[in-house]
Amino acid sequence: MTNTELKNLGFGEWFEDKSDLVQWPGCGIARVIAVDKNSFVVSNGRRDIFAETTGRLAFNADSPMDFPAVGDWVVTRFLDEDTFAVIHDILPRKSFLRRKTPGKNVSIQLIAANIDTALIVQSLDRDFNVRRLERYLVMANEGGVHPLLLLSKSDLLSPDEIENRKAQIHDLMPGMTMVSFSNIDDSGLDGVRDLLVPGGTTCLLGSSGVGKTTLLNRLTGDTAFETREVREKDGKGRHTTARRQLIVLKNGAMLVDTPGMRELGIMDAGAGIDDTFDEMFLMSKDCRFNDCTHTVEKGCAILQALENGRLQRDRYESYMKLCRESAYHGMSYLEKRRKDRRFGRMVKSFLKEKKKGR
């Protein structure tokens, strides 16, 4: 049976069943609570311990998805009276949050794992952007994470303006749960706290400057996390959170804080796109052709909905853009993986021959 300390970190029956698939003699289970480049901090429920991965785990990794992320449950050997740990393996993931790496490099960046709920934070001022929200929803839906929306800086708008913003979102996403709040006058913070379920793991997502770090200080009841002012000239924030970390709140809920994201590239996220644009996914079933591209075909149900006004033009264009981006980056990444595998086989063959020659 699982000990109480691990259960308090979210180790439930699903993970307990999967732990039988990954067993190492003399090792225990821990949860990754912080990642900073190639260094890790894990918790066994009693203390936080600095950790590193084995050379074997790193050598056999085919992609960034094969390395530990915040929220992962890992098979760990504890050393030096539990003051240091070595990560040998990763338990299967129940959910994940990932994106394309920023910039031109086509690779995957794993943000967090085993997340129950994603709290997507957008401010009600210049950061408010429905198209960006759709990208966050694709990321959450692709990884099996339940998304909720937090609208910060509610003190800057009138109640009618806030309701208009919410109505704009509800027109496109009728089932979206939204909570507006202010870090200045504390309005709506009780509604945010109600979303943090004891024993559940929630991840804060959002651009720099939307108030995530200040919100985290409000929720934890201290000022341990540094905040910075938003730039006046463009309303953009500067990165305050430097690493991904999991914090256990007083009510037993777990909250993962992440650095602000200025880029949110989508890669090979077909299922996430279908879930986010579910009205178009349902429409597509009525298209005349199974391989309809929804661009020029006669008998395309989506184009018909666009013509008769049942589908908004900007919603359609966003859907098509994300589909193209997902497919393009997915194909580019597969080609990169093929090249990496060929190089990896060459290296392994070289090491094997070198060992024989000794």
Please explain how this structure is put together.
There is one protein chain. By secondary structure, this protein is of the alpha/beta class. The protein is built from 11 helices and 13 strands.
Low-confidence stretches: 230-240
Report the sheet-strand fraction: 15-25%
Write down the overall geometry: globular
Counting DSSP E segments of at least 2 residues, the number of strands comes to 13
Reading side by side through the largest sheet, how are the strands ordered?
A: 1-2-3-5-4
| C-alpha-based Rg, rounded | 22 Å
Distance between the termini: 48 Å
Please describe the biggest sheet, giving its number of strands, its sense, and whether it closes into a barrel: 5 strands, mixed, barrel
What is the helix/strand order? HHEEEHEEEEEHEHEHEHEEHHHH
Tally of individual helices = 11
Helix content: 25-40%
Mean pLDDT: 86
Q: What structural category arises from helix and sheet content? A: alpha/beta
